[in-house]
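A quick aside before the break. I want you to see a complete sequence-to-structure record at least once, exactly as it would be stored in a machine-readable document. Don't worry about memorizing anything.
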Amino acid sequence: MSTQTVPPAAPSRMTVVYPDTDGQPMAENTLQFEWIVTIKEGMERAFRDDPNVFVAGDLFWYPVEGNNKVRMAPDVMVVVGRPKGHRGSYMQWLEGGIAPQVVFEILSPSNRPQEMTRKTLFYEHFGINEYYQYDPDDNDLSGWQREGLRLVEIPKMNGWVSPSLGIRFELEADKLRLIGPDGRPFATYAELAHERDEIAHERDEIARERDEIARERDAERLRTERLIEQLRALGAEPEL
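That is the input. The structure line, written in tokens, reads:
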């Protein structure tokens, strides 16, 4: 009797899972959170009319396919050349191989020099063009720009304009100001809400003025019509 040998099945390739979160909070305190939101939303606002600028806050970036351990979640990252839209994470091989060009990190008291050095080396290795660190507690801003394979520290940040984004950095006595390409400063959520309230109030005032003008026109028209009727009742034909 002949026997048939069944070849062993090829080992299955395990599916790599790329988590969307590490379970850690986005920020450690309200000041850090406010700055993350301000920069992220300011970038969204500055590039709202460009469909190919993707902005994200605290989103995992996976630069290497097949390795879910190599990752970073910048406080804010900007990718020029990728469409807007929701993502659970930024998997670079699914994004045309395009790495984020600009990254922001907002420091908190718990950040250690070793941690920030590790982040800088990661961003340098995986292709970031511009990297900015801001410490809101000390109002201290640092920046690095790519020169070849390295990120080189920018010697003077006050007045610096991002080559990739056209954003200008201005260090005032008590805080950082970021000015968009349109000349408008980035604003906090509270400032934006106040601005929206003022715009709504101005619109209401304009609407009230228009209504008042319309009422005055209607009243004038009624007065004219009554005058014409009175003149006709007296046998006079008014000239119109």
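Two observations worth writing down. The domain at 30-186 is CATH 3.90.1570.10 (tt1808, chain A). The mean pLDDT is 85. We'll return to this after the break.
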